[in-house]
Design brief:
Length: 160
């Protein structure tokens, strides 16, 4: 809201003071007005104009209240609640429409990638189910499976 500008003192040079060509260093960019040097009563000295808005009591009270609310972390409530709800609904609706449009405008590559991803997920789920079934199976079923495998391996070895 408010901005402070730091001013450089006029006496401090911009560059190294050891330079011999001091006339090249700009000390003052603007010319000094005549009324500063002379105390001539005939000259009319400029005065700062009064801002009628800032001097008004209402403006000062409002400004003070805004500063206090800012310090407390309160934001002024300008909109009624119904208007806020309607704006939120409208924003949500626009976001939803954009998401739907993005889904509709998918390329063939994206569609194929999604299909492959779904197939891989299904295969992983099936593997997990098989592992769970094997872990939950009784001991004699596991032993029987091991005997079948060893029997098949022995038969293949004899054939070779």
């Amino acid at each position: 809201m408010f901005c402070r500008v730091m001013k450089r003192p006029r006496d401090i040079p911009l560059e190294d003071p050891d330079l011999k060509d001091t006339y090249l260093i700009p000390r003052n960019i603007m010319a000094e007005p005549d009324y500063i040097e002379d105390d001539n009563p005939e000259l009319i000295r400029p005065q700062k104009l009064v801002n009628p808005v800032k001097t008004s009591r209402n403006h000062q009270d409002l400004h003070r209240e805004l500063l206090m609310n800012q310090k407390r972390g309160l934001a002024p409530q300008n909109k009624p609640e119904l208007q806020k709800v309607m704006e939120k609904r409208k924003r949500d609706q626009v976001i939803k429409q954009k998401e739907e449009e993005a889904q509709k405008n998918k390329s063939d590559l994206e569609i194929e990638l999604l299909k492959r991803q779904q197939k891989l997920e299904q295969l992983e789920l099936e593997k997990q189910k098989l592992q769970e079934e094997q872990e939950n199976a009784p001991e004699f079923v596991k032993v029987k499976g091991n005997l079948r495998r060893t029997g098949q391996e022995v038969a293949q070895a004899q054939e070779s």
